[in-house]
Batch of 2 targets.
Target 1
Amino acid sequence: MYQTNYHRASTVDEAVSMLAGAAEGKYVSGGMTLIATMKQRLAAPSDLVDLRHIASMQGITVQGRTVGIGAAVTHAEVASSAAISAVCPALCELAGLIGDPHVRHMGTIGGSIANDDPAADYPAAMLALNALIITNKREIAADDFFTGLFETALDEGELITAITFEAPEKAGYAKFPNPASRYALTGVFVAKGSGGVRVAVTGAGSNGVFRQHAMEQALSANWSPGAIAGVNVDSTGLMSDLHASAEYRANLVKVMAKRAVAAAG
């Protein structure tokens, strides 16, 4: 691991200023990806700006059907939140499936979304819930936020501070996890709300998380697992690796979507 300078920020403005003053700085929250990458000497930031102690990036609020989650909230906090569970239990279920207890108590929702790992769970939830990603500069719709493998609409130095969404009428999540990493070989989040039906797939797309529009149309007409049976999932554009072929992932998209709808009720 290369030498680096550690900075502990207490406010968003302070974090942004610290990063701007660094030669090649990086924000770090849970560090689930960055620290591991640094240990392998695949990354060598000159400075790390710790976001875990910024009060304004902590906490969960639920007002009516509007859910707000600070970017520094851990997966464990989401999983155990009674407030979120009351309006969107599927998100709690998703958070409880991430990694192992250590990962869930250190990793944060903002870090997961900003990293945009193609097999991460949260991007599918954000896309299906039509969430709004709030940064220190602006608000970005989830449809515009995820742009590719490990790529997002964030500008250099821009920082996610919170996530907000309107809780749907129904929602469910199901994933086929890698038995070692617990990352999703394929995961599907479905949501039905005032804006219609949204279906998002993670772990399968060669360009990262994506919406499955054919399933959205089928479920809009008939909200039931059986509605998905007639949907054709093309393997073109899906990932193929040592864990699963594109064709296998195409089948998993259908299977996980059915399970997600069944879980949603």
Target 2
Amino acid sequence: MTTFDILFEDDWLVAINKPSGILVHRTGISEDTVFVLQLLRNQLGRRVYPIHRLDRGTSGVLLFGKTQEGASEMGAVFREKTVSKEYTGIVRGFIDEAGVIDHPIVDYPGAEGQQAVTAYRRLAMTELPVAVGRYATARYSLVSISPETGRWRQIRKHFFTPAPPHYRR
């Protein structure tokens, strides 16, 4: 049985270290049968309520309420943006030292874009002597990422679209 590292727990909340490769809860866009929500309920022996989500491929701190009311109140704190979120990621290419990406997110072709804002700060850069496609070397940047909005796959979409202006080859 999968168990999660519990980072914090009190009478109202539990914070876990979510590994990559697992969805937070059941969704109609996936045929997965194992979810953090169910595994954590089994681990704690009680119902828990997700306060926010992380994508399947993302690891990090995930917060759950131990009551529906508590989760709802914490969810409001997230919606009011009194909580800051910070991610560390590796992106391909050399990225500007710091910046803000203010670009709408479009979930599917023909859909209207939703406002999405992501601030970032470069922490380090490296270049490896490994050919990647038409390039003789592989360049990477380690980045601190702070999304100001919370759109579906926002970080991926802001950093992995072809040739955004904040990248240098």
